[in-house]
Amino acid sequence: MSKFARLGRNAGVGALVLALAFPAGTAFADDPVPSVPSGPDASEQSVAVEADPAIPVGDEGNDPSAGETVSRQVRIAVETAHAFGSPESRDLIGYEVSLYQGKWYMPNRENMRKCLSKIESHHHYKAGGYYQGAYQFSKALTRGVTWMMQPEVRKEMGEAGVDLVKKLRKTPMNKWNRYWQDRAFWTVWNEGKGKNHWRAGQGRCF
After folding, report:
1. Domain boundaries, the chain
2. Which of 47, 89, 151, 171 could tie 82 with a disulfide, CB 3.0–4.6 Å?
3. Is the Cβ–Cβ distance between 178 and 99 less than 8 Å?
4. What is the pLDDT of residues 23-39, one digit of tens each?
5. pLDDT tens for residues 75-92?
6. Are the C-beta atoms of residues 86 and 166 closer than 8 Å to each other?
7. Helix locations, the chain, DSSP H
């Protein structure tokens, strides 16, 4: 399914969420992401990243200096619905076009992502073990990517989104929904700068 087809399918949801999600003082009532008690890993050192990296080509209007575009508002509204537990985001088995299509998404590398997901987990977002989730993140990388995502989530979803990211930080990757795992992948991929995290894909997927 193409990016525009997915946006079209979610247009109704997007319009409703946009109306509900962004008024000043509004908070989300539902919290589908499970909270996990803090353990030994809770004190693990976080990965330091720049708060506002350069904006890659691909996310129209995501440059704050360009102002808010309608397409960006719709994308954020749709992604907010996914972030907080849409039916699509709760489907954790099988390949689908990335639910995250924001700042770090590269539509022309979608086949590469599909290939890596196949190699790492057979598109199984619930995959467990030492490495977890569809993209097989370690515990350290799972925690680190929440810090990497947090500044942009704050811009797009406000403090309600940040609160959710903080809960994800204490939650195993294989309990994250599809949207957050997809977003984590593209954030770490970072236009190919993070490809060394997926050495099994070298020569096969990229």
Report:
1. 3-22+55-201
2. 89
3. yes
4. 333 222 234 433 333 33
5. 999 999 999 999 999 999
6. no
7. 3-9, 11-21, 70-83, 87-90, 110-121, 139-168, 178-189
